[in-house]
Amino acid sequence: MALYAIGDLHLSLGTNKPMDVFGPGWANHVQRLEEAFSSLGEEDVTVLCGDTSWGIDLSQSLEDFRFIDRLPGKKLLVKGNHDYWWTTASKMRRFFQDNGLTTIDILHNNCHFYGDWAVCGTRGWFYEEEQSGHNEKVFNREVIRLEASLKAAGDRPILAFLHYPPLYTGYRCPEIIAKLEAYGVKDCFYGHLHGPTHRRAIEGTVGTVGYHLVSADYLRFVPKKILE
Ligand SMILES: [Fe+2]
Ligand SMILES: [Fe+2]
């Protein structure tokens, strides 16, 4: 039994969105994911850190969810900026249930437990969000969501999973970092960064939190093992 993380699967099995926009490193990425996951077992848990499916609604993403459901182990989904199919937790859970998808659940405004650990997460915030004008309401909502998830951990030690990096060369989101530190988060795993932007990712401890990039192309499509 082990806990894994990987972000940005960017699946399009029902929509056929070419992945060469992200460069040649994405060749055969679906097959490579399937191969890497084949070494996992049914007891394992993998957090998918956002940008999971290109579908614009649940029905367009169904083939992607079926693919994810066939991969071994339980999968916890965090929202990414490209997850347009995302809707309310109750609608998503009902959709998974109606379609016999039994290994997928949502990590959003809540937390899951893995052994003695709390698995917390939300989408987060990144400077790209500022391009359409800083939206204070959306930003505050993200911070509140993160805090709701961290609070749900109770006394357990926390691992946090975000889509957006809270830290990046030339960027930091002080409000998100402050929450991670206030709740004693040990490690924070994030995705979103692809191709040349990997170079600007922060890996390692900053302040009191360890930061780790887990976008799929950065991991060469092999989920990162976090806990045994
Ligand atoms: Fe993203
Ligand atoms: Fe992405």
Structural description of this entry:
It is globular and about 40 Å long. The chain has a single domain, classed as Purple Acid Phosphatase, chain A, domain 2. Helix 3 (89-98) links the parallel strand 3 (74-77) and strand 4. Helix 4 (136-151) runs parallel beside helix 5. It starts with a strand and ends with a strand. It has a six-stranded mixed beta sheet, with helices on one face. It is built from five helices and 13 strands. It has helices spanning 29-37, 58-70, 89-98, 136-151, 174-182, and strands at residues 3-6, 45-48, 74-77, 104-106, 111-114, 117-122, 158-162, 167-168, 171-172, 187-190, 204-206, 209-213, 224-227. The protein is an alpha/beta fold and 228 residues long. Helices cover 25% and strands 22% of the residues. One fe (ii) ion is lined by residues 51, 80-82, 163, 192. Residues 8, 10, 51, 192, 194 line the site of one fe (ii) ion.
